Amino acid sequence: MKTIAVDMDGVLADVYRQFLNLHFQDTGEKLSLESIRGLKEAEAFPLLKKHVNSPGFFESAPLIPGAQATLKKLIPHYKVFIVSAATEFPLSLHEKLRWLNNHFPFIQWQQMVFCGSKEIIRTDIMIDDHFKNLDTFSGKTYLFSQPHNEIASPGKHIRVNSWKEVEMQLLPDKF
Amino acid sequence: MKTIAVDMDGVLADVYRQFLNLHFQDTGEKLSLESIRGLKEAEAFPLLKKHVNSPGFFESAPLIPGAQATLKKLIPHYKVFIVSAATEFPLSLHEKLRWLNNHFPFIQWQQMVFCGSKEIIRTDIMIDDHFKNLDTFSGKTYLFSQPHNEIASPGKHIRVNSWKEVEMQLLPDKF
């Protein structure tokens, strides 16, 4: 059974909605997704560091549509691991664990990896929204579209714009 | 530069001393290391589950002698990652991060991995006290001696009885 490493922020968890809401709370400015397309997350949201270090940021993140349903369908066909950069933000560790248990009760603790760098992760497939994680990865790579990567060429990676597209790629027989 | 995955419990952190102390606190019985040699941790300490889920268990663990000094010497020659099973015990995540920051300030967040299973970890070398982690690992493997593995044959792994022995193995030119 092939193994998949699935990223959390920007792939399972809609951190952009969190950032947009918190930016509005802090500044009164309603940013549109169009205005920040192509910008790095820290460029689009100058208060990002403050927000990701605030209690509740990760635990209250909304879901990316389709993530639950598709992941559930993948489980019988792939060995799924959730691999999330977390050690940079101490609060995020416990919050991410709770968030996963809450939204993905069919994901067990054996399938969770909270790391800093993803360079020692080896699976057959990786789904991630950041080039830094995909570019050095030796397996098959899917770039999950997010505003920060939307303008860039996907290069050697396969771009997926939604969880429905992930499903079409990884479970083609079901279509 | 070669990569190393270093385990925490039983390799950096002296969890046996924690277990022995807590067993005495709970039962009044002073277990000797000799009496539990060869037993699995959960067989030696029937209250293990309670202890590892108690606040402070991981954060107050004593150090295995020599761990700090040898790890510091390895850093210029190897890319060191601390890879610890932690997601089974929610409290352990934050406590292990703080423990590492406290005792190993030269280890950065990029070098920490908190996981459930270690099966998707790929480094050149792994140092661990559990066969379940070493047996399926594809790189070079060092079995760090602990009472639960002391009687067993190391099999294909190289047994190391101390951090001094790790140093002799990985930095032979320094001896």
TrEMBL record, chains A, B:
SUPFAM superfamilies: HAD-like. It comes from the Bacteria. InterPro entries: 5'(3')-deoxyribonucleotidase (IPR010708), HAD-like_sf (IPR036412), HAD_sf (IPR023214). Gene3D superfamilies: Deoxyribonucleotidase, domain 2, HAD superfamily/HAD-like. Belongs to the 5'(3')-deoxyribonucleotidase family. PANTHER family: 5'(3')-DEOXYRIBONUCLEOTIDASE. This is 5'(3')-deoxyribonucleotidase. It comes from Cyclobacterium jeungdonense. The lineage of its organism: Bacteria, Pseudomonadati, Bacteroidota, Cytophagia, Cytophagales.
